[in-house]
Amino acid sequence: MKIKFFGTAAYEGIPAVFCKCERCMKARELGGKDIRTRSQSMIDDKILIDFNEDTLTHQYKFGLDMRYVNTLLITHKHEDHLYALDLGNLRGGFSHRPQDNPEPFTIYSSKKSLAPIEKLLERINIPLINMQVAKEFEPFNAEGYKITAFPANHDYDNCASLFYSVEKDGKSILYALDTGYFYDSVWEYFEKNKCYFDLVVLDCTCMEEDNAINWHMGLYANNMVKDKMLSIGAADEKTQFVINHFSHNHVPDHKTLCEIAEKTGFIATYDGMEIEF
Amino acid sequence: MKLKYYGTAAAEGFPALFCDCETCNRARKAGGRNLRKRSHACVDGKILLDFGPDTYSSYLYDGLDLPNIKNCLITHSHEDHFCISPIPAKTSHYAHGDIEPLMFYMTKTAAEDERYNIGKTIRAPHIAKENVLGLTEIEPFAPFDVEGYKVTAYVADHDKLSGAVFYSLEKDGKGLLYANDTGAFPASTWKYLEENKPFFNVVSLDCCNGVLTYKSSHMGLNGCSEVKGKLIEIGCADENTVFILHHFSHNCRVTYDEIVPLAKELGFEVAFDTMEIEF
Questions:
Q1: B114 contacts: CB under 8 Å, gap ≥ 6
Q2: Contact A19 B37 (CB under 8 A)
Q3: Complex ipTM, two decimals?
Q4: Strand pairing of B40-43 and A47-49?
Q5: Could you say which of A17, A90, A96 has the minimum Cβ distance to residue B21?
Q6: A 197-236 residues with CB < 8 A to B
Q7: Averaged pLDDT, A138-161
Q8: For a designed S-S bond to B1, which of A150, B110, B153, B174 qualifies (C-beta 3.0 to 4.6 A apart)?
């Protein structure tokens, strides 16, 4: 299994779109891995997670190829995770899908977070789009992958936000952003179903901010999640823990971030990073 | 005056995100100038023309100084010309330091287009109270001043619901006409141009349709040639005016490399992302 991180920043990107803080100006000067677009990742070139307006940039900069991608998981409807208007480019005339790919483009999310796409489809007919409500704790199959949606501790009342696990051929990944420390129901499910993950991606928006455990996490909550996963057997010493979804309000430059991550047993993402496991 | 193009494609980008057409695939293979982001440009590093979904990308990778832009002219409400999602990032939770207000100019119709909610977003109380964003409703054929530039909006031949206009900017005896998302110009625009005879050193024209001959809503080479001929005929341009083609759709059948020789024969330059012209 392979995951590629196309965008690794929180909503405003790094450098943030209009910001002149020291951190943003430094990122601008450093370039390279210090430049972070909005959050988007792909598993095995097949399962795309989140779809914001940087998707086209990811095509140009990091070789994202959407022609044969037929499965999209949306974590929630905040604009840095879903830019529904760009899905309008799936309509006839705006794109011509490959002749040997007759499959629909299936989008999974909670009912609340599919709403912006529903609104788009009221206005524009896009027969290729197949919306599916991902029900929490009810695994579904997409292109041979077993996918499970979990309720995320992140603007839940408004978005019914989800995070996902994706499993295939004995490999599994937990992709958990945007979320604070996991809800009890998630832990109960992990324990009851003896879930095990080879790779865990965690929201680290708040970095070293003290005790951030709701809405987003920082290293404090990341460590709590990691410890709990290890203690219930949802992870072990072979599991790779990855931190992702960074904000200019909290994250240092990438080099410093990597040093901090290494000390605490995490791997820090950057745009274009790939991990195979 | 200096015009820099940052994005030169139509709504889908070029190659289009989901597309496997032969034109997109040739563009992917060729790379370089054949890859186009959604349409936006900047005059003298000061006046941004449109605020599409790839504007942030131009800040990250192509040197657009977005945090310091104070004025942005919006042609119309369509999503490839105004992207709402970064708007709240101008507020104090997300933007720090010496933040100066950013003023958007557009027609009332564009601001109130219910499909996109641009006006409602910018004027939302939690955003408006910070005084970092503004929206000025403008009218065609009523010149206004922006940072010392005389700006005029012209009625575009494009989706009426989107409140489409295109713009000229004049300063220090130099004139630019930046006309994307329009078919061969509507009668009211020609009338104003004939009566007022502004002179343009550079004319940027929508060539969405490339070698195809449709010339309403968007133009192709033939529509652009027609407009060029008429601008020269009425004295708004002359043999020294540089005519540039812009805003290409993958449906136009030709990549950058392929349209350059065709355009040259007709007396046009072809825009590409990061192209700069000083005049």
A1: none
A2: no
A3: 0.96
A4: unpaired
A5: A96
A6: none
A7: 98
A8: B174
